[in-house]
Amino acid sequence: RHDGAVAAPTAGLHFTESMLSRFTELGIARGEVTLHVGPGTFLPVSAADTDGHVMHSEWGRLDEDLAQRIRQTKAEGGRVVAVGTTSLRLLESAGLKAYEGNTDIFITPGYKFRVADVLVTNFHLPRSTLFMLVAAFAGLEAMQAAYAHAIRAGYRFYSYGDACLLEAA
User: Which residue of 23, 92, 144, 165 is most buried, as measured by CB atoms within 10 A?
Assistant: First the structure.
């Protein structure tokens, strides 16, 4: 909706208008962020050690109204669902506040998530920053098991493949 991204928000493509309407009927609130996904999102990690990897930067915006609704949801014991790894990176960069700017946060196993409780994402390439992020979120062993199942079951991988629903470890 706002020019600047070089890729579609593919995790969100799994949600039809009918599904979104049903969420509203069920009282499930939702909000939108602006994120200019860059080509670096798809780059593999080439450094032998992740400490040597330079994370790409992407511009994003999370407005005060949404930040307030996220804080309220968390305070009331509700769960925050991030749709897509890049959205999750933006949520974590913002914390529980409004945010506008570039983020180059590199989330790897051991990271302590502050905002999202659930993540909807696609199946990502191994040795990618995206796989490292989902392994940090749901646990490496859980993701290895999920990927083994996905391969056996013939799930589709990458940007326009099948989605998975992950709970924070």
Answer: 92
3-class secondary structure for 20-53? Answer: HHHHHHCCCCCCCCEEECCHHHHCECCCCCHHHC
HSE-up (13 A, CA, CB side) for residue 3: 0
Residue 134 placed within a domain: yes
Is 15 a domain residue?
yes
Q: What pTM was estimated for this model as a whole?
A: 0.85
pLDDT one-digit tens code per residue, 40-54: 666 677 777 878 787
Is 1 a member of any domain? no
pLDDT digits (tens, 9 = 90+) for 94-120: 999 999 999 999 999 999 999 999 999
Domain span including residue 146: 10-37+54-167
Residue 82 pLDDT more than 80? yes
Looking at residue 127, what is its pLDDT? 79
Instruction: List, in order, residues 6 or more apart from 164 with CB less than 8 Å away.
Output: 120, 121, 122, 123, 146, 150
Say which CATH number the domain at 72 has: 3.40.1780.10
Distance of alpha carbon 36 from alpha carbon 3, whole angstroms: 8
